[in-house]
Request: fold
Amino acid sequence: MDTIIWNENQLKEAANQLRNGDVVAFPTETVYGLGADATNEEAVNRIFRAKGRPSDNPLIVHISTIDQLEDYVTFVPEKAREVIEHFWPGPCTVILEKKGNLAPSVTGDLQSVGIRMPDHPLALALIEQVGKPLAAPSANSSGKPSPTTSQHVWDDLNGKIAGIIDGGPTGVGLESTVLDLTNPHKPTILRPGGISKEELESVLGQVYVDTHLVDETAAPKSPGMKYRHYSPDKPVWILPQDTEESRQMITSLIKNGEVVGLLASEEFITSVSIQPLNHYSLGKKTLPSQAASLLYSGLREMDQSLVTIILVEPYEKKGIGTAYMNRLEKAAERVL
Ligand code: TXA
Ligand code: MG
Reply:
């Protein structure tokens, strides 16, 4: 299959392919998604095949207007309305009890469905033109870091999908927060993401986190969280906070013949001051949202370079830093 790249003026062609049951990658504000008509079982199965995704991992359904939500869930509790009012369109997926008019493979054996309205003009226009909700996981090969550019999608899926809509680099850079509201008295984060726990709590009051996020041995409620994810082929290690300790570690790795790649803030790169060092800047240390938006492209760039090991700076687990560290810990083999 020849994979076509469309620009923003060619949405109509992409929409036609989707209506015909093909899969198309498109930009969202978080990462690129791999979309298919969520009501067409054949089309949804094509997503799983293209990605090599385990079939027990449900897909997020993307809608273009808030009122479409009621078509796919049995009930929208007050807490869900508050989330939607404050954070839609945006990077927060809500899990609610499903109604049953979606393709069965979208949700697997679950009684619930994850739905979000993305905050990206091309994504919204595309869904609108298809006239159907789009089931879309991140548009990477299963296990790889999610794609934040059309080039990343091409690198993973060229020849396996009908086409890619190029909308430039995505903004948030990490996936949406997955918020379980099937028990509306206990809003629970199953996957940290673009909307932080702190932001959710400013609207909802207390928000819980799935036990799996604090105790890795507990079974995750979100099936996707059990897989080793977001991982380049090369080993990824998380550095200590302390730059002096990191500097010593890097020096001894270099002595042992490793070609070290460093993914870190400008300040961190400057203060370890080892030459020569392959490095990729995650922006200013005071701006964790920049680090979040650059993490996946940094991991991919390092993976394609000559480095033999990728070392990454940790950020504080608060705000978007929580999602950054969640993805990094999943990508990493060891924490130093
Ligand atoms: O930002 C995003 O969320 C991106 C863009 C494309 O929208 N999508 C994305 O999809 O990250 P995916 O498939 O890579 O991750 C979806 C996550 C998985 O961990 C999956 O297990 C979980 O959401 N999920 C989906 N439906 C669920 C449900 N009904 N119950 C629990 N977890 C669910
Ligand atoms: Mg994914």
In short: Residues 153 and 244 are 37 Å apart (CA to CA). The chain has two domains: 4-209, 236-335. Residues 236-335 form a domain with the Rossmann fold fold (CATH 3.40.50.11030).
